[in-house]
Write a structure and sequence with these properties.
seven-stranded mixed β-sheet, 7 strands, alpha/beta, 9 helices, single chain, globular
Length: 234
């Protein structure tokens, strides 16, 4: 299995930043709202005090966390693609949030610019599969998480066997065409297809989290396991 290159991933997302949200809603048939909602509900149940949303992209998860968590909770979004961060900041300003209540920072998941044990909740939605070195990224997440803290990973996965034929027909045959019509960039979404197809199944990712030093990796499958949420603790 090949891994993505950082510069290529950054360039891919920079090229579609302004159309990223609309295209995601279109390609998922609106299911991405439901998937992220499950993540937000899980985050709220943990009653965190300081939250870091990794690979925040256009800031959807970070903004929802800011909207639904108490005002005293510290929420930060981090991404290594500056055009995506600009979209996140634009959406934050439209929502009326201040920089103090929701900050967006440029940074790499493989070298997090935070001290050890800085956060009690980390979230990452549809970004883990883009890491060039996943074990290193998971090690960094463990480092900045406080003891007893949690990691919530929302990510595409390998669907149940009965759904696979139809899912991969859509993924490989239909999705790139729709993405090209929506964004004019078929190549970016061909990368998306390849990154999903090459990502570990839900049980394998749970094993990776345990191997990285996390405990209690609980798996929640959604939409026939097309998307899976892993909840792990330090």
């Amino acid at each position: 299995m090949t891994t993505p290159e950082s510069d290529a991933v950054r360039a891919t997302f920079a090229g579609i930043a302004s159309r990223y949200d609309v295209t995601n809603h279109l390609l998922s048939g609106g299911l991405d709202f439901l998937w992220r909602r499950r993540l937000i509900l899980a985050a709220k149940a943990l009653v965190p005090a300081k939250v870091l949303d990794l690979a925040t992209g256009s800031g959807d998860v970070a903004l929802k966390l800011r909207n639904e968590l108490p005002s005293e909770v510290d929420v930060t979004g981090l991404d290594f693609c500056l055009p995506m961060l600009r979209e996140a900041e634009r959406k934050r300003d439209i929502a009326g949030h201040s920089q103090e209540s929701l900050q967006f920072l440029e940074g790499d998941c493989l070298d997090l610019p935070f001290d050890d044990e800085s956060f009690d909740l980390l979230t990452i939605a549809f970004g883990l599969r883009n890491l060039v070195d996943r074990p290193r990224g998971l090690a960094e997440m463990l480092r900045v998480l406080r003891p007893g803290g949690s990691l919530l990973v929302l990510e595409f996965s390998q669907p149940y066997f009965w759904l696979k034929p139809l899912y991969y027909l859509y993924l490989r045959g239909v999705l790139p065409v729709l993405a090209c019509l929506a964004t004019g960039d078929r190549k970016a979404y061909e990368y998306l297809v390849a990154s999903i197809a090459g990502f570990p199944a839900r049980s394998c990712l749970a094993d990776e989290l345990i191997q990285a030093g996390f405990t209690d990796a609980v798996v929640t499958s959604m939409t026939g396991a097309i998307v899976v949420m892993h909840a792990a603790e330090k």
